[in-house]
Amino acid sequence: MNPARYLLAPWWLAQLATGAKSFRDNPLIGSRALNARGLHVKRVTLAHRIAAARRLRLSGLIDPADRAGFDRDGFVEKQDFLPPDVFARLRDGLFDRAWPAREMTQGDAITRRIAIDPAMLALVPEARALLADTRWGGLIRYAGSFDATPLVYVQSILSQTRDAPPDPQTHLHADTFHPTVKAWLFLTDVAVEDGPFTYVPGSHRATPQRLAWEQQVALKAPGGVDRLSARGSLRIGVEELPALGLAPPRAFVVPANTLVVGDTYGFHARGPSLRPSTRVEIWAYGRRNPFLPWTGLDALSLPGIAERTIPALWRTRDRLHDWGMMSQPWKDVGPKRPTER
Length: 341
Hints:
The chain has a single domain, classed as Jelly Rolls (Sandwich). The protein is 34% helix and 18% strand. The protein contains 11 helices and 11 strands. Helix 3 runs antiparallel to helix 8 (134-144). The chain is globular, with a radius of gyration of 20 Å.
């Protein structure tokens, strides 16, 4: 064994108590011997039990009907989420300007993200009101199982932008091994041809069938699975769902002003886009250490810090990239409008 690996062993061991998920990058997480003894499945099971306890403490933040629907399906859908006049002002305020943007290309698709930062909040008061809306915050906190402020962007999905292999995000996958939250407030209508968000109802639960499937994947990883599964975002084929007791994916073909909040441990994907299109949404993302027993105590949720987190993360990643310490797939593309192709 390379002596350097001995030096890294404490770090790899400490990662077992965090959200680290890569079978490829951590030889303990990717150990066939340890996973044959149930390491991966035990981490999944423990993380879900702790998340359930946190959600119980947060259950008063959402309507009981929404809670029942989420617990059953793994998502909540709310059409006509904002009053029509408020939504129109929000969309116009975001679409009528060019904002500092970052882009990542995957296959034939470009994902553009624009931070909802202090400058945007000052110019678009409806965006500030949305982030303060207790319905928005309650759903995201319950789904994510933490009383924490998510990262929030204006996100544009530009499909069929070049002659390239299909977008890898169109393959059904789980983001990681534990409950996490993403939310989409669609600012444009989403047609079936436009690559709608899809989700497998009920796939957020760590059922015996799901755990058995994960055990088999863990025993093959990292070398016997695809690249993204090896990094801990497990891919699954539609034909495998019935064996897990799961129904086919549901595509969210929805009008603008629809909010969807989901647990992305559940299997989800972008639907295949049948034409060049641009889907725009306010997109939120939350993920913390899954083994924390408490719901709050998140310094990044403090006012004055939360809205500055994304620009700080981008600057930090840029600096680490310049030093050769980290990749930076999100390229600074200057000011762009959300709908610009």
